[in-house]
Structure formats: structure tokens, C-alpha cells
From TrEMBL:
<dbReference type="InterPro" id="IPR015424">
    <property type="entry name" value="PyrdxlP-dep_Trfase"/>
</dbReference>
<dbReference type="Pfam" id="PF00155">
    <property type="entry name" value="Aminotran_1_2"/>
</dbReference>
<dbReference type="InterPro" id="IPR004839">
    <property type="entry name" value="Aminotransferase_I/II_large"/>
</dbReference>
<feature type="domain" description="Aminotransferase class I/classII large">
    <location>
        <begin position="21"/>
        <end position="217"/>
    </location>
</feature>
<dbReference type="InterPro" id="IPR004838">
    <property type="entry name" value="NHTrfase_class1_PyrdxlP-BS"/>
</dbReference>
<keyword id="KW-0808">Transferase</keyword>
<dbReference type="InterPro" id="IPR015421">
    <property type="entry name" value="PyrdxlP-dep_Trfase_major"/>
</dbReference>
<protein>
    <recommendedName>
        <fullName>Aminotransferase</fullName>
        <ecNumber>2.6.1.-</ecNumber>
    </recommendedName>
</protein>
<dbReference type="GO" id="GO:0008483">
    <property type="term" value="F:transaminase activity"/>
</dbReference>
<feature type="region of interest" description="Disordered">
    <location>
        <begin position="1"/>
        <end position="37"/>
    </location>
</feature>
<keyword id="KW-0032">Aminotransferase</keyword>
<comment type="similarity">
    <text>Belongs to the class-I pyridoxal-phosphate-dependent aminotransferase family.</text>
</comment>
<feature type="compositionally biased region" description="Basic and acidic residues">
    <location>
        <begin position="1"/>
        <end position="23"/>
    </location>
</feature>
<keyword id="KW-0663">Pyridoxal phosphate</keyword>
């Protein structure tokens, strides 16, 4: 993270609104939590007196089964945004350029700027059409599917073709799948390309924003 960029970064409102008179539509979460959540919390409380295994193998195994990848590729994070930030910290250097969709999740541009990089905005429904010339000048490309807030999911074949072009130009492709669980689409984690990073969240689909749990697949 670039120290100079931290001083000038502004907060992007995204949940956590304390004013009860404000209806917050910035974070769309499932109002229904899955069966068994209370039992999991009870079990976690019993285990909370001990430090967990640093690798979180049970979480890795469950996450891997959910998205269809090898457990060793799963990196647990405190929320989906933490997975996004981790990917950007790894892929971006000050002065780099990143392809960011719009209209889309406002945190992408902020996180790019926090790394001292520059967001280049591209319409979300045109991003997968970008060719090698632009990709060669971009250290990172961000895809949000389904896109937040429009709800459009990217065609799987188009995403796979774009991921291949990103791999050819050594451009990291960050695929934010925070809302993918509401669809029947398969995860980009199944592509198994070294340049693809998938960010997932337990907030939206499972209705657990207070838990702050997510993961990256890389």
C-alpha cells in the first residue's frame, strides 16, 4: 500500500450506517441466513479459548468445495473486501494502471488508488471485449459478476476468453463474485489460471455481514 495515497484516500460508503433514519441500499444482503448458523456460532464459541490453525483447513476445504477448486488455493480473509485489497496489494505497484468497471462497486477505484495506482474506468459490459493492446498496459483488470449494482452476470465463455487474454499479457484478473451465489453460474476459480484471482464473501449470499468472513482463490 502506498503511504502517500493513504493520506488522500476518502471513505466509500458501504454498509455500517449507524443513523437509524437512513435506509442503506449500498450493501444488498440476503435477509435469510442458512440453517445451522446458530450451531456453528455455538461451536465457534466453544473453540474460542484456543488459537486456531493458521491455515484454517476446515474453512479452506468448505470454501474449495463451494467454488470447485483445490483447498490449497483458498486464502481466508476478513470479508470479501479484504480479499480484493489483498489481490490489489499483490498485483499493483505505484504508477500502475488498473481497469475498473463502471457503474460498479465504488471500493474498486479507492483500493486501486490506495496502492498508488491509477484506475482506468471501462463500462462493465464492455470490459470483456478489451484486447491485448490495452491489457499490456494494465497490471490489473477487475470484473464484478453479477455486477453490483446492475445485476448483470457475465457470460461464462466471454469471461473465460477474457481471462485467457489477461494470462497472455500477464495481467492479473480479479473476479469479484460476491453475488455469484445468487445465480447458477460456475465460479471463475474453476479456470485454474495463475493470473486469475477470485474474491468471495459470506456477507451477501449468507446474510452474515457482521461476521466479516470471505476468501480469495488464487
Amino acid at each position: 500500500m502506498d503511504p502517500d495515497s493513504i493520506r488522500t484516500a476518502e471513505r466509500v460508503p458501504h454498509g455500517g450506517e449507524s443513523d437509524r433514519d437512513v435506509l442503506d441500499f449500498s450493501a444488498n444482503t440476503n435477509p435469510r441466513t442458512p440453517d445451522g448458523v446458530a450451531d456453528v456460532y455455538a461451536g465457534a464459541l466453544e473453540a474460542s479459548s484456543r488459537y486456531p490453525d493458521d491455515d484454517y483447513p476446515e474453512f479452506q476445504a468448505a470454501a474449495a468445495a463451494f467454488v470447485g477448486c483445490d483447498p490449497n488455493r483458498v486464502i481466508p480473509t476478513p470479508g470479501g473486501l479484504a480479499a480484493i485489497r489483498l489481490a490489489m496489494e499483490t498485483a499493483l505497484e505505484p504508477g500502475d494502471e488498473a481497469l475498473v468497471p463502471y457503474p460498479s462497486f465504488g471500493e474498486y477505484a479507492r483500493e486501486v488508488r490506495l496502492q498508488g495506482a491509477t484506475p482506468r474506468f471501462v463500462r462493465y459490459d464492455e470490459l470483456c471485449e478489451i484486447g491485448p493492446t490495452v491489457l499490456e498496459a494494465s497490471a490489473l483488470a477487475v470484473i464484478c459478476t453479477p455486477n453490483n449494482p446492475t445485476g448483470d452476470a457475465i457470460d461464462s465463455d466471454a469471461l473465460e476468453a477474457f481471462a485467457a487474454r489477461c494470462a497472455d499479457t500477464d495481467t492479473t484478473l480479479l473476479v469479484d463474485e460476491a453475488f455469484l451465489g445468487f445465480t447458477d453460474r460456475s465460479s471463475a476459480a474453476e479456470l485454474e489460471l495463475e493470473t486469475v484471482v477470485v474474491a468471495r464473501s459470506l456477507t451477501k449470499l449468507f446474510g452474515l455481514p457482521g461476521l466479516r468472513a470471505g476468501f480469495a482463490v488464487a
